[in-house]
Amino acid sequence: MSRILAVVTNQATYGSDPHRTGLWIAELVHFYDAVRRAGFEVDIVSPEGGRVPLDPRSTKLADRAVRHYMQDGAFMSSLDRTSKAADVEPAQYAAIFYTGGHGVMWDFPSNAALQQAAREIYENGGVVSSVCHGACGLLDITLSDGSLLVDGRTVTGFSTAEERVAMVKNRVPFLLEDELRKRGAHYVKNTIPMTPFATADGRLVTGQNPVSTKAVTAKIIETLHHLDLAP
After folding, report:
1. Residue 145 Cα distances to 84, 142, 181, angstroms
2. The pTM of the whole model exceeds 0.70
3. Is the pLDDT assigned to residue 51 strictly greater than 70?
């Protein structure tokens, strides 16, 4: 149970709008690096499998750690041949982590295979987690008793104010903050947009925005240690 499933997008544009998006690569790298240092193995999966597009803004803003991974041929090659969500064996994983980037708004919410994987991991006693727009993957996870995972739970994710800061509010298909609240979630956020913020509600762990990845990863590792699911 010392394996974690990291979920990334296959969506390269804002729907039919040709404006480019994709994985915000720092959200994968900062998570991947920290959990591997903590002794976990990580498998990268996407809704359809295969190539993962990178949001061009995220590569331009790459820090030293991200640049290091972008120069790692094996790591970058793994983003061209991700596993398909439907092929995942959830029983192998202690946690699932949904990364962000605006692309996920199109291919995470309605993916039944991802919902099933998250439900099984959670009901097996594992952790469900996300950062930024990755919380789109949490919206419609329905547990075996018919309840929504986020109903009545404290969560965070990319805020409406941050969509305005990113200047893409008019390009997105919905506002994540609103959709989480519509599903009964207690949505919380930092007072200042684009600053680190993460929260844990039991085995549901979420981070607000790209710069929250390190904070949410620390909470994921802490939670897994508490559950005795760490290596």
Report:
1. 27, 8, 20
2. yes
3. yes
> What pLDDT shows up at residue 1?
61
pLDDT average, residue stretch 137-165: 98
Class assignment of domain 3-226?
Answer: alpha beta
